[in-house]
Amino acid sequence: MQRFVHSKWKKTEAIKVNPAVREHIPDTRQLGKATLEAMLTEYGMVYVKPDRGTFGKGVIRVEQDGAGFKFQSGTTIRTFSAYDGLYDGLKQATGGRQYLVQKGIHLLKHGGRRFDIRVMVQKSPAGRWESTAMVGRVAYPGKIVTNYHSGGTLKPVPTLLHAHMGGPELAAFTEGLKRLGVSVAKQLDAAYPGIKEIGIDIAVDRSHKSWILEVNTCPDPYIFRILKDKDVFRKVIRYARAYGRVKSK
Asked: H/E/C letters for each residue in 52-119?
C-alpha cells in the first residue's frame, strides 16, 4: 500500500473521479506549448507548477498582459512581446522537468495579500476520515505562493474570511470545507489505500467558491499550533501518533 503520493497529476486524476469533488478542481493539464497557449486564451491567467515538489517551490504565475505576456516566479517578473518568447522563457525556468498548468484562481485577499486555506484531513484511530483542522495562509508581500515555508503567514480562517462573508455564511462555508475534505480523502484512499492523512490547499474566489489547488499526502501537522483552540492541535497530533506520523513520547 502506498502511503505517500508525490505526483500532483496522479492525485488530481484520482480525486476527479468523484463528480462532487471534480467541480472544485480547476482545469489542470500537463504542460505543453499548445496546451499553455490554449489555456491562456481561455482563462487569461494560469499557474504553472512542478508535478513533484513542495513548499510552493517552482510555481510560476503566467498571464496575458495586453498584447504580450508575463510570468512571475518568486518576486521576479518577466515580460514578453510574443508567445514563443514566453514559452522559451518558461522552458528555461522549468529546466525540462514535468510541469502542470492550472487555471488561475483569483484568490481573496487579506490586507492586500492573497490567501488560501489548508484543510487537514486524518484517519482517526477508529479508521474514519475526519477533517480535523484548518488554517489560513497569507502570501508574503509580492509573492504568488502562500506557503509558510516560503514566507507566508498563518492566520485563523475566521480572521481571513470575516471581511468577505457574514457569520452564517462563514459557518456554512467552513462546514462545507470539512465535508469536501473528507470526500477528497475517501476518493484518494480508494486509489491509494496506504494514505493516512492529507493536507488540502483550498483557494476561495471572489464568488466564494472553493477550489482545490493541491493535495499533500505528507502535510505539516505543526502549523496548527497557532490556533487559539489548543484542543484542535492536540487532536491533530493524537491522530498523527496513532498512525505513526508523529513519534509517541
From this structure: CCCCCCCCEEEEEECCEEEEEECCEEEEECCHHHHHHHHHHHHCCCCEEEEECCCCCEECCEEEEEEE
What pTM value is reported for the model? 0.93
Distance, CA of 193 to CA of 247 (rounded, Å): 22
Tens digits of residue pLDDT in 120-173: 999 999 999 999 999 999 988 867 777 666 668 899 999 999 999 988 999 999
Burial tier of 67 (Cβ tally within 10 Å: 0-12, 13-18, 19+): exposed
- Count of residues in the chain: 249
Say how many C-beta atoms besides its own lie within 10 A of residue 53's C-beta: 15
**Closest-CA residue to 145 (of 228, 49, 33, 223):** 49
- Write phi, then psi, for 203 (nearest 5 degrees): -95, 145
Q: Between vectors from CA 134 to CA 131 and to CA 140, what angle results, nearest 5°?
A: 150
